[in-house]
Design goal:
InterPro entries: Alkaline_phosphatase_core_sf, DUF1501, TAT_signal. By secondary structure, this protein is of the alpha/beta class. Helix content is 32%, strand content 15%. The strands form 6 sheets. It has an 8-stranded mixed sheet, sandwiched between helices. Strands 1-2 form a two-stranded antiparallel ribbon.
């Protein structure tokens, strides 16, 4: 009854094409049963984790952004390391960032930067799996995900903050290194814990989420009539179903039905209803409008939203890519923090900005892996030994720097942080127990996060 198609094209440096997937139904819109939620809350209370009404917006820089060109510049390093841009001061003494981020420099007191993040892999897929699931185990030679995303686990347990909203949404789609939903998906939890994807560009004048409308020719009244008819047939087959599949499908169907026939979700997704001044503040481009839509969704009751910023695989022609991308990131990120503050949402919404890894501190000459005649357009290769993560809001203190890299930026020199530390911190904000266990395909219990701890300096 409900359907959506997603497609994308292009290749990463690994040589693998982005895949085309057909998503049938409204996967990702189901939530845990009431008994599961109550049990999870009881476990969380036993571990001293208070109940929260908080949400997360994850801004995913797919392809790997360079820490030394964004948030950890090294102006005193040799020329082949320090990069093209200079640092500028922010409104927080001692927190310098790239000159390409003048808007963020004015609101740096609203976010903090982890400069010592690392997982030590330069493989896109391994790095993405580490950052989004907290585990390794995949590679460019074996890309299927092995674990559910941190968002899938959290929203399975917590559900949406408002029952009329999907718990987990990706704008405009969920994509990790070209895989959809890739490492954002539910994996062994089931497709019902994949994110709900908007599937189209919020910057388009005719932006519409197809999943929120009935199939052509089917009115809301006919939809209600059909639902009553389906209930009759379900009663006949429920007695013979021993797998629990019907109950699972019930949750998906009910969420789809509630969203299509109700007003709140459709209004939240209707970005054209937003004030023009606010839309201009975020930027009239895909990234800016996607971030604005994410804010609308968490404000309406979605628990976890991811926003995809692709194209960061800059082996060559680094300046061309950064000159295009960084101003858009600066506009969208600064607008989000300012907007959350003005709406009184700063303490309720955590913003996270990161990618699967960083780029080599030492720049190449542009001829390394680049197209013919690319020599002279410098770039950076894969690097997972030193990375950054920006976090702000949701109770996370702003204006702080956690950790540091050495003078060349190629390794942590102080307070090393791994992906699990970031995940523990996210779960702390959400009120999610990191010691929750979920059965994998073999029935073996798997802990939500198996390493790291909360980054206490941020609280």
């Amino acid at each position: 009854m409900f359907r959506v198609e997603f497609g994308n094209s292009g290749k990463y440096c690994d040589g693998l094409s982005r895949r085309h997937f057909l998503q049938v139904g409204v996967a990702g819109m189901g939530s845990a049963s009431l008994s599961q939620i109550l049990h999870a809350k009881a476990n969380a209370a036993q571990h001293g984790i208070p109940a929260k009404d908080t949400s997360v917006i994850l801004l995913w820089l797919d392809g790997g952004p360079s820490h030394m060109d964004l948030y950890d510049l090294k102006p005193e390093a040799p020329s082949e390391y320090k990069g093209i841009w200079n640092p500028i001061h922010t409104n927080v003494p001692g927190m310098d960032i790239t000159e390409m981020f003048p808007l963020q420099a004015k609101c740096a007191d609203k976010f903090s930067i982890v400069r010592s993040l690392h997982h030590n892999t330069g493989d896109h897929f391994t790095g993405g799996h580490w950052m989004l699931t907290g585990r390794g185990g995949v590679s460019g030679g074996s890309t299927p995900g092995r674990n559910p995303s941190i968002a899938s686990m959290a929203t399975k347990v917590l559900g949406p903050r408002d029952p009329s909203m999907p718990a987990y949404v990706s704008v405009p789609y969920a994509s990790s290194i070209g895989l959809r939903p890739g490492y954002f998906g539910g994996n062994f939890l089931g497709v019902q814990y994949d994110p709900f994807q908007t599937g189209s560009d919020p910057n388009n004048n005719n932006f519409q989420v197809q999943n929120l409308s009935p199939v052509n020719g089917l009115s809301i009244q006919r939809l209600k009539d059909r639902k009553e008819l389906l209930k009759t047939f379900d009663r006949l087959r429920r007695d013979v179903d021993q797998s629990g599949m019907l109950d699972s499908m019930d949750r998906l169907d009910q969420k789809a039905y509630d969203m299509v026939t109700g007003d709140q979700a459709r209004q939240a997704f209707d970005i054209n209803a937003e004030n023009d001044k606010i839309r201009d503040q975020y930027g009239r481009h895909t990234w800016g409008q996607s971030v604005l839509l994410a804010r609308r969704l968490v404000e309406a009751g979605t628990t976890f939203v991811t926003v995809h910023f692709g194209g960061w695989d800059h082996h060559w022609n680094l300046q061309s890519g950064m000159d295009s991308y960084l101003p858009r990131v600066d506009q969208a990120v600064s607008a989000l923090f300012e907007d959350l503050a003005q709406r009184g949402l700063s303490e309720k919404v955590l913003v996270v900005l990161c990618g699967e890894f960083s780029r080599t501190p030492r720049m190449n000459d542009g001829g390394n892996g680049g197209p013919p005649l690319s020599k002279g357009t410098p770039g950076r290769d894969h690097w997972g030994n030193s990375m950054f993560c920006l976090l702000g809001g949701g109770g996370v203190k702003g204006g702080r720097i956690v950790g540091a890299t050495n003078r060349l930026g190629d390794a942590p020199a102080d307070r090393p942080v791994r992906p699990g530390h970031i995940h523990h911190t996210i779960y702390r904000v959400l009120g999610m127990d990191p010691e929750m266990h979920f059965p994998d395909h073999s029935g073996r219990p798997t802990i939500a996060i198996d390493h790291g701890e909360v980054i206490h300096e941020l609280f």
